[in-house]
From TrEMBL:
Main location: membrane
Swiss-Prot/TrEMBL keywords: Membrane, Transmembrane, Transmembrane helix
Topology in the lipid bilayer: Single-pass membrane protein
Species for this entry: Armadillidium nasatum
Localization per record: Membrane
Transmembrane segments: 52-71
Family: Belongs to the SMIM8 family.
Lineage: Eukaryota, Metazoa, Ecdysozoa, Arthropoda, Crustacea
Protein name: Small integral membrane protein 8
Pfam families reported in the protein's UniProt record: DUF4500 (PF14937)
Length: 101
């Protein structure tokens, strides 16, 4: 029993020494965790400093893309058209017609 208690005390002391040496600074977050270089390369965005200009460019680009898709969808519905697929697999834009016409 004495032997196991000594091992546990040694492990506790070693753990305290390691934890004291590796005290992360406030705000470091995941940067303070010991990882491999492969993890840092794959998860680059976790370690890079945020860039407001690049984020703004990305958000504006995504918003414009969504607005363009919505505009195109509205134009197709407004013009009362649909995509028809021919016998040979070609696609053509056709006007919707009533069976009464």
């Amino acid at each position: 029993m004495y032997f196991y208690r000594k091992i546990a005390e040694n492990l506790d002391n070693k753990l305290k020494i390691i934890m004291d040496k590796q005290k992360p600074a406030p705000g470091e977050g995941i940067k303070s965790i010991r990882t491999t270089n492969v993890f840092k390369i794959i998860n680059f965005e976790l370690y890079a400093k945020p860039n407001l200009i690049i984020m703004t460019f990305g958000v504006v680009g995504i918003l414009f893309s969504g607005a363009y898709l919505a505009y195109m969808r509205a134009q197709i519905e407004k013009n009362n058209t649909y995509v028809a697929i021919g016998e040979n697999g070609s696609q053509t834009l056709m006007q919707k017609r009533s069976k009464w016409d």
